[in-house]
Specification:
The structure is a single chain. Helices cover about 40% and strands about 15% of the residues. It has about 260 residues and is of the alpha+beta class. It has an eight-stranded mixed β-sheet with strand order 1-7-6-5-2-3-4-8, with helices on both faces. It is globular. The N and C termini lie far apart (about 70 Å).
Length: about 260
């Protein structure tokens, strides 16, 4: 048997089948949850006879979801963490980027983790994200960047969606950072659910905020999380940065006069 004896069409079909197999086979069998982990994750451990320090709000509306994020970023003093599967440079995405840059200008450390699908389709070589990444206080990483030469890795996606601000608050749920999920910029909407959690006192190591932050640090440190940088501040990047600064000033004005509020 020789590939040379096969018609070109069959050879291409054979390679396509092999590619699909490499794409799917690694994910056919799911890992089993160990008995020890099930016992460790017993639901009784989440209950207590005394009130904790965390307060929770249920976020059901897309506009509220964007406003909560913007107010959280505006309140940040030390650190902002944003993890998202999808991040677009649309209007809600620009609102977020403008607020993130405004926080970075105040000296806040900003770290952003985006899945490789959005990194490939939306972030890579995009002047808006290049402008964001060019700030000295902003660090962006792409989780498992798309590599078509490694199909066995293509389905290893990160669907985490949360925002953490300082040691005080976080917002977690199913919303991506796009018009489809945030704000009222699009006629098409994906209605999702989120929880906003606020610590009434400093978060301890057993708080859900501390656990979420520990999880983020583990993913951030993985070799799969690749640094995304602004290689060159081009004219288009400068224009995007100026537009984001102008957008931030406008949003701050709305906040001061009481229009932008939750």
């Amino acid at each position: 048997f020789s590939l040379r004896s096969l018609p070109i069409g069959k050879i291409l079909l054979l390679f396509l089948l092999i590619y699909i197999a490499l794409l799917a086979i690694p994910y056919i069998q799911h890992k089993n949850v160990s008995v020890s982990y099930q016992k460790k994750f017993a639901k009784q451990s989440f209950y207590s006879d005394t009130a904790g320090t965390e307060r929770v709000a249920y976020i059901n509306d897309n506009t509220d979801a964007l406003l909560y994020r913007l107010h959280m970023l505006d309140e940040a003093k030390d650190e902002i963490i944003l993890s998202t599967f999808d991040f677009n440079a649309d209007k809600s995405g620009q609102d977020m980027m403008a607020s993130l840059l405004h926080a970075a200008d105040r000296g806040v450390s900003v770290r952003i983790l985006v899945d490789g699908i959005s990194g490939f389709l939306d972030v890579k070589r995009n002047p808006w994200f290049q402008a964001l990444a060019s700030h000295e206080n902003v660090s962006i990483r792409i989780y498992n960047p798309i590599n078509l030469l490694k199909p066995w890795n293509l389905q290893a996606r990160m669907h985490d969606k949360y925002v953490i601000v300082d040691q005080k608050m976080y917002l977690l749920g199913g919303r991506n950072t796009t018009n489809l999920f945030l704000g009222d910029y699009s006629s098409s909407k994906n209605i999702d659910r989120e929880l906003f959690v606020y610590n009434s006192s400093e978060a301890d190591k057993n708080s859900s905020l501390s656990q979420l932050r520990t999880y983020f640090e583990r993913v951030w440190a993985l070799s799969d999380s690749k640094e995304y940088t602004c290689e060159k501040v081009t004219e288009s990047v400068k224009k995007a940065a100026a537009a984001l600064e102008k957008r931030s000033d406008y949003m701050q004005t709305l906040t001061r006069i009481g229009i932008l509020k939750n």
